[in-house]
Amino acid sequence: MRGVTEDVRLDEPPLLDELMPWSVAPLRFGRSWIVAPDARTLRARWDRLTAAEGAEREALFRPSRARTPVSAVAALPGQRTGTVRFAREAGPCPAPVRVAHGPFDEQWLLPDHRLIDTARPELWRVAGEPQLFAVEQGYVPGAAGPAILVTAALPEGRSPAGRPGRIRPLFRRPGGHEPNLAPGLLAFLGERYGHEVDAREWLAWTVAAALPSPAGCRVPLPEDPEVWAAGVALGRELVDVQTRGALSGTKPRLPGGRRPYVRAAVPSRPATIAYDPHDEVLDLDGGRISPVPAEAWNYQVGGVRVLEQWFAHRTAPADPGSLEAIGPGDWPQEWTSELLDLITVLALLGTREPERSALAERTAPTAPAPRSIGAAVLRAAGVLPPPDRARRPASVLDHQEEGPEGQFMLL
Length: 411
Fold this sequence. Notes:
Blueprint: H1 4-10, H2 16-19, E1 35-36, H3 39-51, H4 54-61, E2 97-100, E3 106-109, H5 121-126, E4 133-136, E5 148-151, E6 154-155, E7 166-169, E8 171-173, E9 177-179, H6 185-193, H7 199-209, E10 221-222, H8 225-242, E11 261-264, E12 274-276, E13 281-284, E14 287-290, H9 294-298, E15 300-301, E16 304-305, H10 306-315, H11 333-363, E17 372-373, H12 375-380
Helix pairs in contact: 7-8, 8-11
């Protein structure tokens, strides 16, 4: 008869879907002109649209099955935007908000429900400090990079390779209340590791140790408290870097005083991006930034190089006369500053990637002696499966939300 330890070793790690039961599918914007790397562009696009009338406004709007200028739509939770049918909209531009438009690419969005095909209002209700969103990346066989990314900004949630992912808020209610975890999980882990485990510690471990799989992301849980502590320490650093220092309050910096600088100004309209590994130079059509560690240039998510995708989001051609064609005439200085910060973030994450991969391999069920707590143990302890209610949004409707045409919704 096999011993308990052997059964544990052969048991698969639990799925993240079981451990963080409430998840939301990615947002679907429906029209690309409502998101941009700078807020000024969005205001200019809004002004152009609201100045148009009739058929011209409809053509600029880019109607879809979900949204047209005459759709009746409620306001997004927490956002003060109009709710009259957009065909009659003549008011000022709503204040753009920051969103995570792909891995490590924070851009600006017009938070108007009339413009967004699928906005996921349940996410907007719980957004804001101290909320963090774990974005599970779609599975891409053999792709390099982490299985989970963390952002404090509301995420669009789509993986760079186009694979569907899931958005998992860390907390089910505003203000950091009610962790989005299987009931009893934190108490179970606290007993195993000899100290109280909170939601942020859990998230840190998950970011460090999560494993991609065709069935979804799996989270191995070590039997050894020292392995858990090491993974949590690594994960806290990774989360802090990914969120640009949101946890520590300190902006990420490269060790040893290294810092990327602009050695030659970026031209007004760069069209290509290239990397010279010998001199550690990032070249944007003659604009030169260095030092850029190879770890930053090579960093991928879902098999896609992050720096190349970030650049493409700012330089992709648009149809003349469309709202997407409205943008900065020259490359803004703020984009260069954001690029320097991004290089630092990716370099730091890339440097720690071997350590993160080693931890994941050490706790994987295929390791020589993983000694991990599998799903069967959690089921025996009553932690799994999570109850159906844990998979649904919590009731946070303690305030009025404006419905279509200015009517308050009955919640």
